[in-house]
Design brief:
Radius of gyration: 22 Å
Number of helices: 13
Shape: globular
Structural class: alpha/beta
Helix content: 25-40%
Distance between the termini: 49 Å
Strand content: 5-15%
Largest sheet: 6 strands, parallel
Length: 410
């Protein structure tokens, strides 16, 4: 199945012509954009063409994590480049109402774990955030996407970087097109990534897990074919896409990011803009937050997330599909999901969950009084701010600034 990027290219050239940027690459919200630059853009509902490609079609607006940026505005709300020479008179200015107050800042902790959602957090009443881990899988993920589309539900997919390949990149494109949020679940699903040793090397390794996954998500959205994905991958990582990146290479993520930034600049992306600005992450297996761990291990992971500008997303309930003895038990899975939906909060599911169990659970959810909400709503519930404000306050630290952030964990 070929990419639908050709159809998207036509749409992006029309929507972004006013920005004076190349039509080949739409500008997407970056971590450095102020909240005033975020504008709503309808997501696309992919429709299969005769050759199997997904073609963009209008659908409901996507969650904030997947929004495109329109023409930038000045602080007074006027488009940049607009002729303001013949402005209002001083008399009319005196009658102009004062500008609206800026959006409230996030109430973020100054100490403790990284910004995020944890099992001890209060559950939002009658609201549940659906999250799926370990994709993209060529056989399992499409079934999950089909069910979500059928029931008109949105979810967050925490993807594994190593699973984003020439044969699965289109699933990333489909997730975004259908209005879902994408988060990082690390590059290689190393549940012990923070347990190696204290020090800078471990922080760089943890951050590299997520930075490399961020890059791969971008490449998946840029790719126009399987061969094009392979070309982009080789350009950034200087090796074949079928070759696994070892730990030593993950620590070299600043080199990958520099080549990736050059590629994006050539494609027309400005400054820190990128195809998709990942905000949410989840540690494999819960990482040092669930596994028996020492304090320094949690601090290593917390420091890496702070430097990366990522939100840590744990969960309140889970489907139980990792239970080796009951992962195929229909009643066990549906019972866990029904209880999790009823109690509210963040619910963990995996792409490989038994399909009929997920079908039954989602159907029951749609008929209940519980509302499925994006993580942006959970963010607002806990931190009292909109997602773009949180994104701006968690701006990633440049690679050159990281070395001074480890003193507390040595």
């Amino acid at each position: 199945m070929k990419s639908f990027a050709a159809a998207a290219l036509v749409l992006s050239s029309l929507a972004l012509a006013a920005c004076g940027r190349p039509a080949s690459s739409p500008r997407v919200a970056s971590a450095g954009d102020p909240p005033s630059l975020w504008t709503k853009t309808p997501a696309a509902n992919p429709t299969q063409s005769q050759d199997g490609n997904f073609l963009a079609a209008p659908q409901a607006a996507a969650p904030q994590s997947a929004k495109l940026v329109g023409k930038p505005l000045n602080h007074d709300g006027a488009s940049k480049g607009q002729d303001l020479g013949a402005g209002p008179s001083s008399k009319s200015l005196s009658a102009t109402p004062p500008p609206s107050a800026p959006p409230p800042r996030c109430t973020l902790p100054e100490t403790g774990p990284a910004v995020g959602f944890y099992a001890r957090d209060p559950r939002p009443a009658q609201q549940v955030a659906l999250t799926f881990d370990d994709g993209p899988h060529p056989g399992k993920t499409p079934k999950v996407l089909n069910l979500l589309q059928k029931h008109k539900l949105h979810a967050t997919f925490f993807v594994v970087g190593a699973a984003i390949r020439s044969g699965t990149y289109q699933l990333i494109q489909r997730m975004v097109a259908e209005g879902h949020v994408i988060g990082s679940h690390s590059y290689n699903h190393d549940v012990k990534m923070a347990a190696r040793r204290p020090g800078r090397g471990s922080i760089d390794y943890v951050r590299g897990q997520h930075e490399v996954t961020r890059i791969l998500i971008d490449l998946a959205l840029l790719a126009q074919s399987e061969s094009d994905f392979t070309r982009l991958y080789t350009r950034v990582f200087e090796q074949k896409s079928v070759v696994y990146l070892p730990a030593k290479r993950l620590r070299a993520w600043p080199e990958f990011l520099a080549r990736h930034r050059l590629l994006l600049t050539e494609a027309g992306y400005e400054k820190s803009a990128r195809p998709y600005a990942v905000l949410y992450s989840r540690p494999p297996g819960g990482g040092p937050y669930l596994e028996p761990s020492q304090k320094w291990q949690r601090e290593v992971y917390d420091t890496a997330l702070r430097e990366a500008g990522l939100v840590n997303v744990m969960w309140h309930d889970e489907s139980g599909d990792t239970n080796m003895e009951k992962k195929h038990d229909f009643a066990f899975l549906t019972g866990n999901l029904a209880r999790g939906f009823r109690r509210g909060g963040v619910v963990l599911i995996h792409d490989y969950i038994r399909t009929d169990a997920l079908t039954t659970a989602l159907s029951a959810l749609r008929k209940s009084d519980v509302k499925a909400v994006p993580l942006a709503e959970v963010t607002k519930h806990k931190y009292g701010c909109e997602e773009p404000v949180l994104r701006a306050e968690l701006r990633p630290a440049p690679a050159s600034e990281g070395s001074g952030a480890i003193a507390a964990v040595r």
